[in-house]
Amino acid sequence: MGDAPPIDGGDDYLALPQDKMLQQCSVDYIRTSGPGGQHRNKTETGVRIKHNPSGITTRGTERRSRLQNEAEAVKRLKLLIATQVRRNVELPNSDETVSQRISTILPTKKQRLGPNHPNYPLGLQALLDLFDAYNGSMADTAKHLHLSTGVLSKLMCSNDIIFTAANSVRKAHDLHLLKKSN
């Protein structure tokens, strides 16, 4: 899935704090165009980060602060790793850690983590890994998670990041793509 090769331990990358994550990356500071007033582009506040183990690259250029742009780029990098790096999941008895991570993003959980929470990529990657292990089958994945296919479908279509990643998994298994209902 995606351009990134399968990597064992991809979740270890997602659990790293920002400083440890940056140690695995090539970081370039860049000037970019766009809004920001007269002080924009006077210094190299934009950040381009390439995660060396996976080859995934992202940028942070929205802010006038290099540190804020770096933090945004690392956050994006973790989401990209979660959606593009697949890990093997042993079925039918995937380990308990995987189930706990997935449960943090499920809509049935009262303390559900949203996309802005730092641990969201861990749950997202675990869900997509399980979905891939079931060859993109909504029914089998939903059954494993004790959900209805409707609830799982709603989660998969809840934002563009999950929707695109889920369709990439389905495409890799030669299945019809999911469609968003209006």
Comma- or semicolon-separated keywords:
182 residues, 3-stranded antiparallel beta sheet, single chain, disordered N terminus, 9% strand, mainly alpha
Please, could you describe this protein's structure?
The protein has helices spanning 10-15, 18-23, 66-84, 96-103, 120-133, 138-144, 149-156, 160-172, and strands at residues 25-30, 46-51, 56-60. Helix 3 runs parallel beside helix 5 (120-133), helix 4 (96-103) packs across helix 5 and helix 5 (120-133) runs parallel beside helix 8 (160-172). The chain has a three-stranded antiparallel beta sheet with strand order 1-2-3. A hairpin with a 4-residue loop joins strand 2 (46-51) and strand 3. With 182 residues, the protein is mainly alpha-helical. The longest helix has 19 residues, at 66-84.
